[in-house]
Design a protein that fits this description.
The chain is of the alpha+beta class. Helices cover 58% and strands 18% of the residues.
Length: 320
């Protein structure tokens, strides 16, 4: 459950820390602790709560997971929840990461599908002049999470392009509508995950939030810009999907009209000989054509001529 637990001083990693020795590190000036947890159980979270003095409600949220993205303050601790996204087997896989941030510690709790933050920690350790405290670690982690949205949205846009190709350049298929609705559902999941990020970043950039030092606050503006861009990309894709759905329905209607026109044309062609045969199937006593030697071939020729004439007209007008 414990991915890593380390002590930092002046942006440099000092050593690994045992959970039971965290209190000793927290008492040191200019030191902070960075702990990474993955799907911890209740006992582990209770231990973390005791060491850092975390609020019961925040621990309850971190244990249960399935929380909406949010930012909350509990006394001298900041609690942040973010949704993580990844593409797995052609669909969006969602996860969560919870952050507990204090003046001298940061605790990350991962649930579900999520990237490992080992690379983020390594990058932060390579820039000790920036890693002065847990605030910059929070920025680096949030930045890594937000950057994961771009390849997901790009993949969804590729799926949208493939659907548009199917609608306009291939034969109509019933599964196009199902694919559109499935893609709309995935975009809605991404929208719900990324939309609250704008408010979270706004809150982190506010001057009344003393958990974030003034030197680190401008970095959250970069995450804010990325969040706005992702929101715009999602909204544009959803609008294009709505247009694709309308286009697909229009193409289906046009295809059905074309089929109906063909049926009507062939019905007219079949109706002519049926009508003529119907006349001669009547039980009239006096029918002058019956006594004429050339009546049968003339009727056949007349029927064929009318059918050919109608066929050429329908073909020219696009009904056949």
């Amino acid at each position: 459950m414990i991915v890593d637990c380390a002590e930092y001083y002046e942006g440099k990693r000092v050593s690994k820390v045992e959970i039971t020795h965290i209190n000793e590190v927290l008492k040191k000036p200019n030191h902070f602790v960075w702990i990474g947890l993955q799907e911890p159980d209740e006992e582990m979270l209770k231990t973390i709560q005791k060491e850092f003095g975390l609020h019961d409600l925040a621990i309850e949220d971190a244990l249960r997971a399935h929380q909406r993205p949010k930012i909350e303050t509990y006394a001298d601790t900041l609690f942040v929840v973010l949704r993580t996204v990844q593409m797995k087997d052609g669909h969006v896989d969602l996860g969560e990461t919870h952050f507990f941030v204090g003046h001298n510690f940061i605790v990350t709790v991962r649930h579900g599908s999520s990237i490992a933050y080992v690379d983020v920690r390594t990058r932060c350790e390579s820039t000790p002049h920036l890693l002065r405290g847990p605030a910059f670690a929070l920025y680096a982690l949030m930045d890594a999470i937000v950057d994961q949205y771009f390849p997901v949205i790009n993949a969804l846009e590729d799926d949208l392009t493939a659907i548009e190709e199917n609608i306009f350049h291939e034969k109509l298929r019933r599964d196009n509508t199902a694919k559109i609705y499935y893609l709309k559902r995935q975009l809605l999941d991404v929208k719900r995950s990324v939309s609250p990020l704008i408010d979270i970043c706004n809150r982190l950039m506010r001057f009344d939030l003393n958990f974030i030092d003034q030197e680190t606050k401008p970095y959250f503006r970069d995450i804010y810009d990325h969040s706005v861009r992702i929101n715009e990309m999602v909204d544009n894709s959803r609008e294009l999907l709505s247009a694709a759905l309308e286009a697909n329905l229009s193409m289906v209607s046009i295809s059905q009209n074309e089929i109906a026109k063909r049926f009507a044309g062939w019905a007219a062609l079949i109706g002519v000989p049926t009508m003529i045969a119907g006349f001669y199937g009547m039980n009239f006593t006096y029918m002058p054509e019956l006594q004429w030697a050339w009546s049968y071939p003339m009727v056949i020729a007349f029927t064929i001529a009318i059918c050919l004439f109608l066929y050429m007209r329908f073909k020219k007008s696009g009904w056949l």
